[in-house]
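note to self: the first set is below, dont mix up w the second
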Amino acid sequence: MKKIFEPILDEFQPTSAKDVSAFEKRYNVVLPEEFKKFQFTYGRCMFSGEASIVSKSNANLEVFTMFGINCGAGDISDDIETHEEYASQGLVPFADDSFNNRYVIKTEDGSVWYLEYNAGTCNTDQVSDTFEGFMRNIELTPYE
């Protein structure tokens, strides 16, 4: 993976294998291996510049913060508890944009989707077939 991340606090907050296993059991999901590797390395973090990605419908989307597992603020479980439809639809939120929209992994097939909330509606846009593809396609513009 590209070295494009920086910690939100003083250092990265990697997730333990025990916490990932407990998360998978709690929500009855199997997380993609590349997502687990990301969590084991970084956990909750942000980008070291302005991050964006182009969706499959050619929309240019911002990516702001990556969430962690069992990390306090920015915890994926908290987001699932807030948005109950995520668990019922097999969606795992893992990132947001600066407008609080979400990027989710669809656990059924590992695909990544962008959920845009607007005036009580939720529009969806597929971003990648895999988490690995999502990471590979992120464009980073360094801060000036």
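second set (the one i keep forgetting abt)
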Amino acid sequence: TQMWSDTYGGFFYKSLFSQKRFEFLTRVLRFDDTETRGARLAEDRFALVRELWDAVLANSRANYTAGAVVTVDEQLLPFRGRCLFRVYISNKPAKYGIKIFMVCDADTLYCLHAIPYLGKGSINLPRGVNQGEFITMKLVGQLMDPGRVVCCDNWFTSLPLAKRLLAKKMHLVGTIRPKPYLPVSSIVDLKLGLKESVAVFNHIDKVNVVYKKVKPSKHVAVLTTLHNTFTYVENTKTEAHMFYNASKGGVDAFDMMCAASATNRKTRRWPMVVFYGLLNLVMNNAWIIYSSRDGHSHRNRIDFTTAMAFAMVKPYAVHRYETHHHYLSWNLKSLLKTMYIGQGDAVEPLPALMSTKKRQRCYLCDLKSNWRGKHVCHGQCGRNVCPQHSRHICQICWPH
């Protein structure tokens, strides 16, 4: 409501559509064909937005080349309404929502691919493959360039995943859970001092584990196929731990960027939640591409987002001004011209002065007044009016 308020709102929203028009569009907005929806929902729970989802992510991958390190993690789109695949994640601020598995560039935070979690039984896992391995391979399936490093947490990391990536000449660096996932389970039984680390190297399979005691009752095991030496970089931190700490936050940082400039609106329909999530994804991906180019570091993200929104709506606003000219109020026409047409454009000539053949009374004057004239109003009424109840206006200020 405040977006269209005369006190708190801006002219940007008023120039595009009314509040009722906006509410109507958000209420009836759909992203699929309702006639074939039933058949598609029987095969895909995400069918209501699948076509839009795939198209947006395909464009994201086509317009960016991933760097040397990518991060795999999850994002939660906040939602508490009815949805078959709504999940609960205790360590997320929103707690409830739609979980999205995502891979981002660890350096620039650009989102390269994303897969929605559609609930239990929605993934047909091959025999001997766990869910974390399956999701990771699907996310990085189009990023299989030799030498690229995949960084992920212990939900995704496993020994079979490391071997599959090595077969594609890629590397894996990630924390791994204790028994039974550790390649060398006996390493857990070692008595280590605080901040002390130990490494196990398998030079045949090229899979290595660095095990560290970070707290009296907490250990962190990092599985890596990138590091083959046990090197301390900073005090008690090993090279493998330092690399993991520097690369693990790609998806979380991208999620924070989306939250800082979120387009989310209150809704009870989960397709709209996904739509708002895609808007956030596209907007931040566009900013990352723009800021990574040479000579574009002078503009901050807020200015870029504002300019992008203005460029997207300008064609519609100009079309509205030219097509619906006779149905808009003077204030709105003046606003459209000021914001989108510009004062530098050619000024349309004023219409010829209209008058009546006979002198008539001003329709606003009191009945006791004897004024009569031929001048009429150039607005919508076209009735006779006296100088006392009318004003002169120049060609520049005339609201076309």
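remember for set 2: The two ends are 28 Å apart (CA to CA).
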